[in-house]
Amino acid sequence: MAKTYAIVAGTAIVALLAGLWFATARNAADIFAACRASQIAGGTGSIGGPFTLVNQQGQTVTDKEVITGPSIVYFGYTFCPDICPADTARNAEAVDLLEQQGIMATPVMISIDPERDTPEVMADFAFNLHERMIGLTGTVEQVKAASRAYKTYYQKQEGDEEYYLVNHSTFSYLALPEYGVVEYYTRDMTATEMAESVTCFVETAS
């Protein structure tokens, strides 16, 4: 019996050491480990990716043309009564704080309501939020593809065909052109906290 316990204990210790080694090796391979505050199932490489959408000038663009520097990407819609305006305003404030430190970041808004959010509507929305904001929309299929890439959720509510609301996830994503999505931010993150986080990632990347 004692021998059995010893074998089990030995196996548990080996497993624990292997887990510690794996975690250490993973952090060593992750150059952003010191900056990262969130955990993403499957790693940050599982979120983000190629997309093709339409910008506020009506031009078809790809992710490579949009994410040319540090970018804070948000999925929302212009008819959103409260959450989207607050989140995108917070993101724009973080971008201004970053600019004060010499970091030029871009706020990006991807509409999950392409039926109402035409390029013209996105242009007005972006203009009122930040001079560098990029507003993106597209066909229903293009928006769905971008949402799947970023693993976001949205669902149109039943009801009025003109004044309907859309349920959606509310994460903001930090994307770097060389690395893709490296971090995500929840709604309770302040603009100052977000700017500090982005600064860590940008300085580490450089």
TrEMBL record:
**Can you tell me which family this protein belongs to?**
Belongs to the SCO1/2 family.
What PANTHER family does UniProt report for this protein, alphabetically? ELECTRON TRANSPORT PROTIN SCO1/SENC FAMILY MEMBER, LINALOOL DEHYDRATASE_ISOMERASE DOMAIN-CONTAINING PROTEIN
Official protein name in the record: SCO family protein
Q: Which domain of life is it from?
A: Bacteria
Sorted alphabetically, which InterPro entries does this protein's record hold? SCO1/SenC, Thioredoxin-like_sf
CDD domains, per the entry: SCO
Task: State the SUPFAM superfamilies in the record.
Answer: Thioredoxin-like
